[in-house]
Amino acid sequence: SDLPLPQIEVFKQGFNEKLQEGQEKLHQMWLDWSRRSSKESTDESSAEPEEMESLALLMACSITQQLQISCCKIASAIQGLPSSLQDKVKQSLSIVEELHASFSVANSFQDLSSSVLSQTKLAVIQDYMEELLDYLKNNTPLSWLVGPFSPREREV
Question: What InterPro entries does the annotation carry (predicted)?
Fold first, then answer.
């Protein structure tokens, strides 16, 4: 009955890596940008702060879009699981949608609120996903093992 466990682990690893990688890249770019805007860099080979900024915003847009797609897939795959878990996935999706929307319209870091730039929102999503994956490790839905999923109204 523990057939999908490797897939769950692979998914968990992939999701966490994507999240972490995105956070690290963005944080690094933000640090570079702050350093350059506070004191003009004499290093001519480095990208302009404006260039760095629009690149970082583009990347943030792309990362949040990927996370949005992942959350949507997860939400549709876990119908029939306890509603508390489904709610957390829905909350994760709305956080990601909010982040994506903010990055999509921002022209510079100044356009973003400090709450968008803080890492707490992504940490919340990571916690929710950990919880979901831990649950799945211990309670693999039977329908995942025996064929097409038919969502049921009642909680498992």
Answer: Perilipin
